[in-house]
Design brief:
By secondary structure, the protein is α/β, with parallel strands linked by helices. 18% of the residues lie in helices and 31% in strands. The chain is elongated, with a radius of gyration of 31 Å. The structure holds adenosine monophosphate and magnesium ion (MG).
Length: 402
């Protein structure tokens, strides 16, 4: 059995070998995708000198404080005026400044009488105020958005103003999911006798979608060696980046997953990690002509499989895409925690952020790896490291938001 850190090192070095492919997609489909090119501006931003306020455009002369109105320039309906220092035009926010004008007096800073405007006494008056200069945001040809940026609405806005209707982004990883277990029925059914609803398929697919990757649903396979073989063969032939199975990977009599994986050519890199929950985790790789599939055999217990996903699958995908997600923090414990072995524990907890600027965390009542309902009340994992025993109220622990 290997340690948490050893497991992470092995997974990370394999996952980093995945070849990120790229695709050109519509601008509006690229939100929450990762940019695979530098984006440059095709024009100056703004493209012309313009007004930052509704007001009056003038040629600044510090001694002149009233002006004759010569006309108006609505935004998008430019009409040039050759003004001297004694005249002005009414101008709207975003309107192009007439030739020679360098300053805008806001509407609220003038009194208007007939064709004249008079600067109010306390008004701010200086050359260049309330104007936006050609190219002051970004000059033509300059870098607008950096490669590897996770695209959010503000990046889409920048790309739009640079005239980009499509962007080159990294393709989402294709991640297959298969649940195994004789006891499983799908969620439309009400389980009877010794059956339970299959939640893992849904939790893992939801977790894949949550990080905007592409899931492929291989359904539920019974604990029958041939059935599992056929389903895994199909999944392995699907040229996935990652294949995730849940269940059937412990020591039980009907736990066939590891054996079948290996019979199909999966190279096991490790099996079992010194963690709780999620100890039976299996990780391997499968090579095909064009590349490799990362194989994660997660245990069936619903809390274990999801915690394993967060720790080992999600973290390494985010690293692969160079995404720095700030989901780790230190919190003060509001409960004593029971921990008496040398595994690394990931307890489910509820954190809160207090007025004193600190995080506090409580554990959820039941830490059983089968208790999904309790996990549903949590919003973080509390990490208790290998050599740490029974942490007490008031001590600090590292946590991961989930
Ligand atoms: P296993 O790892 O196959 O031994 O399963 C461990 C526990 O997880 C058993 O109690 C199973 O009933 C439960 N389990 C396995 N697969 C699922 C699933 N897809 N959804 C919910 N519970 C599951
Ligand atoms: Mg099972």
């Amino acid at each position: 059995m290997i340690s948490y850190n050893e497991a992470q090192d092995i997974i990370q070095s394999e996952v980093n070998k995945l070849n990120l492919k790229t695709e050109q997609i519509d601008l509006l489909n690229s939100v929450n995708r990762v940019l695979a090119e530098d984006v440059f501006s095709d024009i100056n931003l703004p493209p012309f000198n313009n007004s930052a306020m509704d007001g009056f455009a003038i040629k600044f002369n510090g001694d002149i404080k009233n002006w004759k109105i010569a006309g108006e320039i609505p935004a998008g309906k430019f009409n040039d005026y050759d003004l001297d220092e004694h005249s002005t035009v009414s101008i709207m926010t975003g309107s192009k400044l007439p030739s020679g004008c360098d300053t805008v007096i806001p509407l609220e800073d003038v009194e208007q009488q007939n064709d004249f405007v008079y600067l109010k006494k306390d008004a701010r008056f200086a050359k260049g105020i309330n104007t936006r200069k050609l190219g002051e945001d970004l000059l033509k040809g300059k870098l607008a958005i950096l490669k590897d940026t996770l695209l959010k609405p503000h990046h889409i806005a920048v790309a739009a103003s640079c005239g980009r209707s499509t962007l080159k982004v990294y393709k989402r990883l294709r991640i297959g999911v298969l649940a195994t277990g004789d006891e499983l029925v799908d969620i439309h059914e009400t389980p009877t006798g010794d059956k339970i609803r299959c939640s893992n398929l849904y939790s893992i697919i939801a977790a894949i979608r949550n990080i905007n990757m592409h899931s492929v649903n291989f359904g539920i396979a019974k604990d029958d060696k041939q059935l599992i073989h056929d389903r895994l063969k199909w999944a392995l032939e699907s040229e996935l980046d990652i294949l995730i199975t849940t269940g059937g990977v412990s020591f039980g009599k009907f736990d066939y997953v590891k054996e079948v994986y290996e019979s199909l050519g999966v190279e096991t890199k490790f099996w079992q990690v010194k963690i709780k929950p999620g100890k039976p985790l299996l990780f391997g790789t499968y090579s095909f002509n064009e590349g490799k599939t990362m194989i994660f055999g997660l245990p069936g217990n619903p809390v274990s499989s999801l915690v394993n996903f967060f720790l080992f699958v999600e973290q390494n995908i985010l690293n692969l895409f160079k995404l720095k997600i700030n989901n780790k923090f230190s919190a003060t414990l509001q409960d004593d925690l029971k921990k008496e072995d040398s595994k690394r524990h990931f307890m489910r907890g509820v954190y809160s952020y207090s007025d004193d600027g600190k995080y506090y965390v409580k554990k959820v009542g039941n830490q059983s790896s089968g208790n999904l309902a309790e996990m549903g009340k949590s919003n973080c994992l509390i990490i208790v490291e290998e050599d740490r025993m029974n942490p007490r109220i008031g001590e600090t622990a590292e946590c991961i938001m989930i």
